[in-house]
Design brief:
Blueprint lengths: L2 E5 L5 E6 L5 E8 L13 H8 L9 H10 L3 E6 L4 E8 L3 H14 L4 H19 L2 H13 L13 H6 L2 H11 L5 E7 L3 H11 L19 E6 L5 E8 L8 H12 L5 H9 L5 E8 L4 E9 L4 H14 L6 H20 L1 H15 L5 H9 L3 H13 L4 E6 L5 H4 L1
Parallel strand pairs: 2-6, 7-11
Antiparallel strand pairs: 1-2, 3-5, 3-6, 4-5, 8-10, 8-11, 9-10
Helix pairs in contact: 1-7, 3-8, 9-12, 9-15, 10-11, 11-15, 12-14
Length: 413
């Protein structure tokens, strides 16, 4: 079950892991371009392009694409993040060639029909509207925007409606030509497959991929600040954010364990104190997200406006308490959770495909599971105390609130 990597002469990389005991294959095309590669005027274009690649190629209509994959019982979808765009399919093992052919056709031969673009813009505008009506989505976008103020990485993935309305076929096709290059693409597959056959398929189907180099995004840096959106809601949605770490930072696993102890599950400090003991929130958790050169540590909670002050006091108290280090039980629970999560991800072909694709994009190598587990085991209790001190001592965290603005004035003053 060992993974293999092949780099083609044009720079395109292929990573796969064979599972002879399953009947399916999960395969993804990872493109190293996301919302952070856009200018302010382009914001939302990467996501719009992802939509448009499903709207027809030189030989297939949008209907053809949908019917071909579903005719064999397969599934195909895509998503855009701030860092990359992923197109993926899951099919029976005998239909891997069809999946590779369809994915290659989407990525390389899109016609981006102008009439289809106008219709799809309306779909995306509905998606934006749905997001704006979901306060716990809005509050995370707002946290990102103040944490990384005036930077591409701080902008939303969907982009503003006025941008979407202005997108043109030429703009989308130009962006595709600039970024959908062989050296920016990773093909990742896990399932009942032969690596050599996969490589041969990719060489054939992706033969026309463009070769070149593209400009890298501006390095991101944490800024901090507050974004308070006053809305008449039953709950107040609160997020707090601090500078996190990159994927390459030696403190990465320490931050992951800290986040797990503080707010990573039902046994976490925030869940136990905020929800179980005080009933201040139904949903409360922490997270640690990373990028190539930076990261964001944050906490989310949804609470009643009259409880927000007590909630923030509890958060501050629990973080300050962790400056003394975690107790042995919670430390071991957090490490066990992370190690189990790594092992469980190996069992699902789609999760493992995503893990391998991301590793090749970020590290340009397969990171052995045992290496990750060793890194988790190498974190000490003192490292957790150090992480807590970093956050407690930081003078300008980010705050984003959606709800009753008056309720947060006291602790923001």
């Amino acid at each position: 079950m060992s993974a293999q990597v092949t780099r083609l002469s044009n720079g395109l990389r292929i990573v796969s892991e064979s599972r002879r005991t399953v009947e399916t294959v999960a395969i993804g095309v990872w493109v190293d371009v996301g919302a952070r590669f856009e200018s302010a005027e382009q914001n939302g274009l990467t996501h719009c392009l992802e939509h448009m690649l499903f709207k027809g190629t030189e030989t297939r209509s949008a209907r053809d694409i949908a019917f071909e994959i579903e005719a064999v019982g397969g599934h195909m979808n895509a998503y855009t993040s701030r860092d990359n765009t992923t197109y993926y399919a899951r099919v029976l093992k005998e239909d891997m060639e069809l999946a590779v052919d369809l994915l290659a056709d989407l990525v390389l031969n899109s016609v981006c029909d102008a009439a289809e673009l106008e219709r799809e813009k309306d779909v995306i505008l509905q998606e934006i509207g749905q997001t704006l009506d979901t306060p716990d989505d809005v509050v995370f976008d707002n946290l990102q925007s103040v944490a990384f103020k005036d930077q591409a990485i701080g902008r939303t993935i969907l982009g503003p409606a006025e941008n979407v309305k202005a997108f043109t076929r030429d703009g989308l096709m130009g962006f595709l030509a600039d970024h959908y290059l062989a050296s920016n693409i990773v093909i990742s597959a896990v399932g009942n497959l032969d690596h050599g056959k996969l490589v041969a398929l990719v060489e054939e189907k992706f033969a026309s991929v463009k070769v070149g180099t593209r400009k890298q995004p501006e390095p991101a840096h944490f800024v901090g600040g507050a974004a308070i959106q006053d809305r008449e809601l039953e709950q107040l949605h609160l997020t707090l954010g601090w500078p996190g770490v990159s994927y390459h930072d030696e403190r990465y696993y320490g931050h992951q364990i800290f986040s797990t102890i503080l707010g990573g599950g039902m046994s976490s400090r925030l869940f136990q104190e905020v929800r179980e003991h005080r009933g201040l929130a139904y949903s409360v958790y922490s997270f640690s997200s990373s990028h190539a050169e930076t990261g964001l540590f944050g906490i989310y909670a949804g609470t009643s406006p009259d409880m927000v002050e007590e909630l923030v006091d509890v958060i501050n108290s629990e973080m300050k308490s962790l400056e003394q280090g975690p107790n042995k039980q919670e430390f071991e629970i957090a490490r066990a959770q992370l190690k189990a999560g790594l092992m469980m991800a190996l069992e699902a072909t789609t999760s493992r495909m995503e893990q391998l694709g991301r590793q090749i994009l970020v590290f340009d190598r397969i990171v052995p599971v045992q290496e990750m587990i060793s890194n988790v085991e190498g974190v000490l209790a003192d490292d957790i105390a150090d992480v807590a001190s970093e956050f407690v001592d930081f003078s300008n965290p980010s705050v984003a609130v959606v709800g009753d603005a008056k309720a947060v004035n006291s602790f923001l003053a």
